[in-house]
């Protein structure tokens, strides 16, 4: 049995055209496959992102509990800062007559302004 490519009456030009047409068809199929693969990868990335978001939503109660603890710490910080301001000097300020610390940056803006 002979195939159309085996027939001696086909010219080399016809065979070259057939090969070129086949190569074009293969290139089209490959391009379609690559486009579909890119689409599948985008969809997979979107699903992974959604899964991660759902996992974080499931942990919302834990996040809120942590946020509450952090706000409590902020409140404690401000209470401590207010106490220091009311006492007249921060805890790390040297007592009157003591040598200044090496990281002392000079007088504060309040001390800098004329009274």
Describe what this molecule looks like in 3D.
The protein has 115 residues and is mainly alpha-helical. It has a domain at 12-91. The chain has three helices and no strands. The longest helix is centred in the first third of the chain and has 47 residues, at 12-58. It is rod-shaped. Mean pLDDT is 80; it is low at 101-115.
| Major sheet characteristics | none
| Terminal CA distance | 113 Å
Instruction: Provide the structure class.
Output: mainly alpha
- Rg from C-alpha positions? 39 Å
What oligomeric state best describes the polypeptide chains here? single chain
β-strand percent reads under 5%
Mean pLDDT: 80
Spell out the helices and strands N to C.
HHH
| Overall form | rod-shaped
Helix content: 55-70%
Number of strands: 0
Number of helices: 3
List unreliable stretches of 5+ residues: 101-115
Summarize the structure.
The protein is mainly alpha-helical and 115 residues long. It is built from three helices and no strands.
Topology summary:
Elements: H1 12-58, H2 60-87, H3 109-112
Please name the defining characteristics of this protein.
69% helix; 115 residues; mainly alpha; disordered C terminus
């Amino acid at each position: 049995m002979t195939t159309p490519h085996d027939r001696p009456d086909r010219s080399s030009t016809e065979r070259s055209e057939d090969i070129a047409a086949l190569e074009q068809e293969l290139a089209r199929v490959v391009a379609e496959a690559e486009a579909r693969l890119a689409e599948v990868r985008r969809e997979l990335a979107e699903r992974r992102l959604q899964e991660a978001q759902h996992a974080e939503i499931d942990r919302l109660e834990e996040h809120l509990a942590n946020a509450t603890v952090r706000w409590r710490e902020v409140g404690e910080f401000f209470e401590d800062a207010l106490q220091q301001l009311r006492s007249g000097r921060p805890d790390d300020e040297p007592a009157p007559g003591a040598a200044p610390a090496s990281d002392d940056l000079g007088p504060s803006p309040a001390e800098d302004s004329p009274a």
